Amino acid sequence: MIRKLIVVAALASSAHAAWAQDQVVYHITDSKVQSLAALRNARNHLDVDPTAKLTFVTHGEGVDFLLEGAKDRNDSPYAGPVSALTARGVKFEVCEITLKNRSLKREQFLQEADFVPSGVVRVTKLQRQGFAYVKP
Question: Ramachandran region of residue 130, left (φ > 0), alpha (ψ -120 to 50) or beta?
């Protein structure tokens, strides 16, 4: 009987932990305006809650900070912060419609970038999966 109670308590605890995990989609549509704040917010979020599941979805001019060689307004490369956040489990996703519309190629992006058919559709799907929406 005690063994069953322990198993039930462990299962309830793990279910609660999974349910309580923060899931956040950062929606980036303008790299110049949003990317520095978003990267800083994500780092701070993980500093407070290392178990959080964070996904950046980019489209339009929001993809620019993920281009190879892109630098912020302080002339610092984005590659370092993006790589550091990827190492902490953050995902960076680029809209393929944007690639087509802007004549960009996958090879122009940081290796950390993943690609999705549509940024808007991806944001919608993540929200339906329970992700909180942040647009810095």
Answer: left
Are 25 and 127 contacting, i.e. CB atoms less than 8 angstroms apart? yes
Write the single-letter amino acid at 111: Q
Give the chain's largest Cα–Cα span.
Answer: 65
Provide the 3-class DSSP secondary structure of residue 24: strand
Q: Quick check: helix, strand or coil at residue 55?
A: strand
Q: DSSP assignment, residue 113?
A: E
pLDDT tens digits for 56-95? Answer: 999 999 999 999 999 999 999 999 999 999 999 999 999 9
For residue 28, list its beta bridge partners.
Answer: 58
3-state secondary structure of 84: helix
pLDDT confidence band for 5 (50 / 70 / 90): very low
Pairing of strands 132-134, 23-30: parallel
Predicted TM-score (pTM) of the model is 0.85
Q: Can you tell me the distance from the alpha carbon of 111 to that of 53, in angstroms, rounded to the nearest whole number?
A: 20
- The Cα-based distances of 123 to 37, 39, 48, 111 in angstroms read 19, 18, 24, 21
